[in-house]
């Protein structure tokens, strides 16, 4: 399953958000969008959900415009988890996760044995087995996010789209969530497309990074090539001290100062 943005432009009223964006998601990879606040990262995700109008260009799934897919067929191929939670709080974890099987459920029929097996497998994979009968409202922020992601994973999509899945979480839960996302990618061979703010975490967990700046793609490609002192200075306006992880070789950095404050 191949997802591609082709010359996509998005405008809110008179304000141009992004222009002529090209993004290509290779099957089975973790692809992450990064950029400054307001650069248009989340707007691109909203383009997938049709919650914003695409001014020009198209989004294709396996070479076909995404608009040409029936809603249920699309949900079997791609799961999208927006940044703002919309799940009810007064249901239990298992009920929430089971929503992910709706695209496969026949009208007025109960879940099949296959559905029930997938729900059970997903709860265990997402470390929610012991919480399955707890109400969502009783969970911590990290546990709620695990439950939301589990619902999307329960769709068994080929592509999972996540808009800032670690927002509002402490560092331990951020690592927990991203480790689970990586496991989903590796064990279920689900392509991941996500937005992250933390560049170090983006570098650590991604295969490919797209940097959004000035309404377009500033740079894209392998993490080792994209995350550099030059990019961090030109896009984010910061000087950094940079190292490379051993043994992965992936870059990580400590911000030192804003470039306009440079002595």
Descriptive report:
- The chain has 263 residues and is α/β, with parallel strands linked by helices.
- It folds into two domains: 3-227, P-loop containing nucleotide triphosphate hydrolases (Rossmann fold), CATH 3.40.50; 228-263, no CATH class.
- 32% of the residues lie in helices and 30% in strands.
- The protein has nine helices and twelve strands.
- The protein has helices at 41-49, 71-77, 93-98, 113-125, 141-153, 171-188, 199-205, 223-226, 229-236, and strands at 3-12, 15-25, 30-35, 54-61, 64-65, 78-81, 159-163, 191-195, 208-213, 216-222, 238-244, 251-258.
- The strands form three sheets. It has a six-stranded mixed beta sheet, sandwiched between helices.
- β9 (208-213) and β10 form a beta hairpin.
- α5 (141-153) runs parallel beside α6.
- The protein is globular and about 60 Å long.
- The chain starts with a strand and ends in a 5-residue tail after the last strand.
- The mean pLDDT is 94.
Topology:
Layout: E1 3-12, E2 15-25, E3 30-35, H1 41-49, E4 54-61, E5 64-65, H2 71-77, E6 78-81, H3 93-98, H4 113-125, H5 141-153, E7 159-163, H6 171-188, E8 191-195, H7 199-205, E9 208-213, E10 216-222, H8 223-226, H9 229-236, E11 238-244, E12 251-258
Parallel strand pairs: 3-8, 3-9, 6-7, 7-8
Antiparallel strand pairs: 1-2, 1-4, 4-5, 9-10, 11-12
Helix pairs in contact: 5-6
